[in-house]
Amino acid sequence: MTGNGTTRTGTRAEALGLTAELGRAIALLAGEALAADRLAAARDLLEGLVVVNPREPLAWALLSSVLRRQGQAEAARLCAEVAVRLAPRDERARLARAEALLLSAPERERGRIELRELAAGAGPVGDRARTLVAALGS
To answer: CB of 132 within 8 A of CB of 103?
Structure first.
């Protein structure tokens, strides 16, 4: 086992038999817990998921959202940055980063810029970004 979540033959997830589909299902279950305001349950699921599969951007983005809602701004920003580095074009990861950046005075404008870019998109991410842009008066 190496220090980056991989074994000599693959990831911890692969060694444990955690398929990509199962990983996504766990992330979606955690997302449901987050939506139901069961933050501790969501956090437990997501922390376990990022340990066994550190290359899953959705898990990092969701963990960022949990940490942000728990008032851990710096940890939320770091998790969101990991998500964006893993998937630079993933709108959910970028939204998580924008929301985390809003919590930091020096980074707030960067978060607003990212929100304005995301607000041009369709779907739930675009909807959320437009709502935040309107609320911020940006």
So the answer is: no
pLDDT, tens only, 27-52: 889 999 999 999 999 999 999 999 88
User: Amino acid letter at 8?
Assistant: R
Q: Show the CA angle centred on residue 123, arms to residues 121 and 127, nearest 5°.
A: 75
**Could you tell me the residue ranges of all domains in the chain?**
12-136
CATH architecture designation of domain 12-136? Alpha Horseshoe (1.25)
pLDDT > 70? residue 133 = yes
Task: Report how far residue 104's alpha carbon sits from residue 113's, in angstroms, rounded to the nearest whole number.
Answer: 14
- Does the pTM surpass 0.85? The reply is no
In whole angstroms, give the CA distance from residue 87 to residue 90. Answer: 5
